[in-house]
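Thread: Newbie trying to understand structure tokens

Hi all, I'm a second-year student working on a class project, and my supervisor (Dr. K.) asked me to get a predicted structure for one chain before our next meeting. I've only ever worked with sequences, so writing a 3D structure as a token string is new to me. If someone could post the tokens and maybe explain what I'm looking at, I'd be very grateful. Here's the chain:
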Amino acid sequence: MIKKTYRSKHYLSLNVVIETEGGERISCSFTGGLSTPVRVTGSYRTTDERIHRALEKHPWFNVEYFLQNTIVRDRPIQKEPEKKPEIKKEPSGDGRVSEAVSAQEAREELNKTYGVPFSKLRNTDQIIAKADELGIKYPKWLKE
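---
Reply by user tm_fold:
Sure, no problem. This is what the structure looks like when written as tokens:
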């Protein structure tokens, strides 16, 4: 797989209409240009070799835009599926005592030790409810 990046020489955005070898007309939009704090012209990136050939045969090549970068990979990168953390649920009632002295420490402990996602621990009430469910006591933080 070859990924090529083309950059406009002068324009923040540029639209180039190309015709591929099969007669297909494709519009290539050079975008992403910035005028401040430093001027950066627009760019176009593709892995389609038909488009590479057509862009490099176009009369504006090396006049209005140029080939900035080429990346060659022997094989496509395969993304590994994201692994969701397992929630380690342990039976409640064994009276585990935590050394946490604040809601933030309790939240981090529940996440790291017990695998509870932070999205389930957004406020103090949720932290206390999850700790009760897991049978964890916080004597240094919660004064009962």
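A couple of things are worth pointing out once you decode it. The helical segments are 49-57, 103-114, 124-134. DSSP finds three helices and seven strands in the chain. Feel free to ask follow-ups in this thread.
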